[in-house]
Amino acid sequence: MMALLHVDAQSDSVEVRQRAVPVDDGWFLQFGADWTLQKPYGHPFSEMIQNGSSVGVDVAIGKHFTHEMGLRVKASWGNGIIDSRANWLAPFDQPGENHRKGGFLSVQGDIVFDLHNIVSGYKADRMWNTGVFLRGGGVYNFGVNKGSPLIGLGWTNAFRLSDTWGVYADVAYNGISSGFTMDPSTATGTGSGSNMYFTIDVGLTYNIGGEKHKLKDDVAKNSLSDKSFWKNWFLQFGADMTLYNPCEKNFSDVFPKGVTTGLDVALGKWFSPEIGCRGKLNLENFLFENKKLEWLPYDEEKHVSNYDGGGCVMAYFDMMLSVKHLLTGYCERERWDMYCFGRMGLGKNRSIDSLSPVVGAGIGATYRIDRRWSIYADTAYEGITSEFFEGVSWSGATGGKFNGIFDFNVGVQLDI
User: Fold this and answer.
1) Given this model, what pLDDT does residue 66 score?
2) Taking the complete model, does pTM exceed 0.85, yes or no?
3) Choosing a second label site near 398 at 20 to 30 A (CA), which of 150, 162, 270, 361?
4) Mean local confidence (pLDDT), 395-401
5) Shortest CA distance to 334 belongs to which of 365, 362, 363, 364?
6) Are residues 155 and 283 part of one domain?
7) Residue 96 region by backbone torsions, left for phi larger than 0, else alpha for psi between -120 and 50, else beta
């Protein structure tokens, strides 16, 4: 792995800027086909192939930021070319209708970790690399004109044919809301169940530029044994204000009906000056109670408020891109940075025991105080399913409408 954040300065008075990964390195395209197996909540696995099977096509563009980590944006169109006549593709029990209306389309971002390169080191002539990825995005079902957040995880394999061409094979688990199926038999109620589908993808990878697509640091390294993997980790501790905006509620009333405060803790790593990731835990509405809060539901038989029921817990995984370093390069002596991030995760309303998928995006900045300590501030917007707001803004048993969450965070960062 590259010496990611080290810059050899010519002298103390000279500012040296460099890009650990040139912007035009490491790009690739993928084209393939997929087999989707849909398993709605409340329906047996044993009937999944017979009633939930469909085929589709995929296209993706991605970039390897380091030998260990990359990003891929992928679009998949299912049941649009070949009619599977599956009973579980909404509208339910109407074979052929989903295909006639256009099938379903998903767009997702995958954060890919190359396990071979992390554990065994990078080798330019390796014929097979395997890895795992985390996924966040959305899916739209043309059969019922409804969309849903999507989160998932998967296993990917890359087989090298030449410097330019390769073959990929992926398997993924995708979690969605009951709004995707739009049938009362799949409703999760308070979100205690799961609607999901498996995808199996196979296709071709085209490395843009062939030999030139490779990252410049092509020296075989094992980032675990040479300790570079353990560098550039950070901890964050902060406070936040969250604004909940359930569907069909007027945002002008969010103060005070939808505002809460909470605490955040995060652990992250920069794999290069341009790309990093962060796992974040947000504990909301448990320290200070907003007496006028109306838009967070609670179990009225057990609690007198959402605060009394324990508030909410949000678990996020953020993929972070340093906008400043991508545009201007990295300099060790600079004090501030600006980044954007994509977000995926789960939100749990503890009072009603609801667990819902969350996807979103945000921007943030850090300002370095000294060698190890910084101040950070970021803001994000997330979409979450209506199960999370059950009883406040319930959009029917199928949970097909959109609910938004704004959050604003400020705190301190410790570079480990």
Assistant:
1) 87
2) no
3) 361
4) 43
5) 365
6) no
7) left
